[in-house]
Amino acid sequence: MTLDEMCMMAARYSDRYDEFEKTLDGGDSQDPEDWYEDDAMHYFRVFRDAINEAHREVSRLQAQPDVYTRVQVGEDGLVDLSTLTPAVYQVKDVFVENRTSSTAYVFDTKYMLKMQTAKQGDYVVVYYHYIPDDLELLDDSPVFTEAVVDPMVYVSLAVARMWQSEKKMEFFSYWYNQYREHLRNVRSSMLSSAKRRIPRRLFR
Asked: Is this prediction's pTM over 0.85?
C-alpha cells in the first residue's frame, strides 16, 4: 500500500475524507505539494509523519530489515559505517568476502569498525540491521510486505496523531491503543513464523 493510499485510509477513519480531497492537478508528479494545499496539506503532513513514525518503530523493534554490504577495508584496518547506504542501525556480523565465515572485528568508535584479521584493501561483507528511509512521495511504500506488516499499523497511528493534533484525547487514546495492538500482532506473527521456519544454510 502506498503512502497516498494509507493517508486516504487514515482520512476515512478520522472522518476527514472531504477535507483531504486533492485540490490541485499534479499530473504525473508524485510530490504531494503538487496535489494538496491548505487544510488537505496539513492533514497530509500529520498522516505522513505518523506513518513514518510507525514505519521506523516497526523497523527498530519488530521486523528489523537487514542487508549484506560488501565494503573495502581502509587504512589501519578500519571500516567506516557512516558511508554505508542504507544507514547502519545495528551491526549483526561481518564476513569474509565470499561469506563462508565470519571475521573478527571490534568497534573503534560508534561508526568505525576495526578489523582484527582483514587488512587494508581486503573486502569484507557487513551484515546489518537498517532503518529505512522515510516515505515522502505519494507512491512510496513501506519496505515490508503487507503479509509481514498490516498497513493498519501505520494507519492507526496516523489517525491517532490526527486526533491528538486536535486535542481530542479520547479518540487519540482509542486509536493509539489500536496501534499498540497492531504492533504486538506484528511481533507475534514474526515469532510464530520463526518457529515454523526450516533453518537454511547461510552459504551455498
From this structure: no
